[in-house]
Task: inverse folding
């Protein structure tokens, strides 16, 4: 049983079948194929908006290339201080952006809030050419703490961003989990709320390696094709990335997978929260559970072979547990049962 990440999971059978089906016959290379065209038309339907869509193979490439297309190299991107683009992409956004700066802002539950953003923007230096220029804001949906931004929260951030002439980027690595959690129209938490570009994740939710950069204003996408090629993400056999996305977005597979993963996370959270000495760090809204486990429980679970990354180190172990489309109830229940047995022992700490 492995809750280390949602990318320890395999591939949805529907997506495996779609890759196999795309392998018959020949197709034009470099994205000039029918499947790639279908990704864009399907996204236009789902988002109820004209879009320019570019498949890439990783979330890091999606974020870095999307941000780079929105701004010149002397720009600053504001985000939450725990954002993946700031701490977990080895400087890819700075590299592809030609030296842009990513600036982290504190906020509860992994979320940026409009007031803190306004304060940070108000503290910018006004020394013209001597200062880097604010160009964009990035938010992560669902957040790095597994919380979900409601449409109103995004709209408030967008209003501050737009007021300062900034673009709004969304890292939607777990976008499907957020839509499933909010039970909203995808448009409500993207362009209708003021998002300019979405990096729509699929890999964590059933694809093998597929993400889509979705621009809601095709004018913002003018340079993207060149940046993607130059960045090594224009796959010659693009149809196999696109086949994954077409299957992912067909018959609501993306939402069915996400709903299931979210349900498994809720089940895990409920089971753990009922145990003495175990505390959830954040409300569970998507497919991630952040929990403080007593050392003995954490060590015991790891020794028993359960997979997860302990994040803490001071006293109680702060642990992230991630469920996926393929998580089964028996796995969740086995984890909770093992944790129960460990907490039942006297002297738990
Ligand atoms: C919030 C978030 N954004 C982006 C990524 C990047 O995805 P990849 O590992 O495919 O580059 C991840 C992956 O862990 C993530 O959690």
Result:
């Amino acid at each position: 049983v492995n809750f280390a990440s949602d990318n320890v999971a395999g591939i949805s059978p529907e997506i495996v079948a779609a890759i196999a089906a795309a392998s018959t016959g020949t197709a034009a290379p470099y994205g000039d194929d029918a499947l790639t065209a279908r990704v864009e038309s399907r996204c236009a339907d789902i988002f109820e908006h004209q879009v320019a869509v570019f498949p890439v193979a990783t979330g890091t490439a999606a974020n870095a290339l999307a941000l780079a297309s929105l701004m010149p190299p002397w720009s600053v991107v504001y985000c939450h201080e725990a954002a993946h683009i700031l701490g977990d992409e080895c400087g890819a956004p700075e590299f592809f952006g030609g030296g842009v700066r990513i600036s982290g802002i504190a906020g509860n539950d992994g979320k940026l809030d409009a007031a803190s953003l306004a304060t940070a923007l108000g503290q910018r230096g006004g020394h013209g050419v001597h200062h880097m220029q604010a160009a964009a804001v990035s938010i992560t949906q669902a957040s790095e703490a597994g919380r979900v931004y409601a449409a109103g929260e995004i709209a408030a951030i967008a209003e501050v961003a737009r007021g300062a002439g900034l673009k709004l980027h969304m890292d939607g690595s777990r976008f499907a989990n957020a839509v499933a959690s909010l039970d909203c129209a995808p448009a409500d938490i993207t362009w209708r709320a003021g998002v300019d570009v979405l990096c729509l994740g699929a890999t964590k939710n059933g694809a093998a390696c597929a993400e889509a950069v979705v621009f809601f204003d095709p004018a913002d996408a003018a340079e993207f094709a060149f940046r993607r090629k130059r960045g090594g993400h224009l796959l010659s056999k693009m149809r196999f990335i696109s086949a994954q996305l077409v299957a992912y977005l067909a018959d609501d597979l993306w939402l069915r997978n996400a709903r299931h993963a979210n349900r498994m996370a809720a089940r895990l959270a409920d089971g753990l929260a009922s145990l003495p000495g175990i505390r959830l760090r954040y409300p569970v809204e998507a497919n991630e559970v952040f929990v403080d486990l007593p050392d003995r429980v954490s060590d015991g679970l790891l020794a028993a072979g359960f997979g997860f990354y302990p994040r803490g180190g001071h006293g109680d172990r702060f642990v992230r547990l991630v469920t996926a489309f393929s998580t089964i109830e028996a796995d969740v229940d086995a984890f909770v049962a093992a944790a129960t047995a460990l907490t039942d022992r006297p002297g738990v700490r």
Observations:
- The pocket of pyridoxal-5'-phosphate is lined by residues 58-60, 63, 84, 140, 171, 173, 203 (CB under 6 Å).
- The CA atoms of residues 15 and 244 lie 5 Å apart.
- The two ends are 24 Å apart (CA to CA).
- The chain has a mean pLDDT of 95.
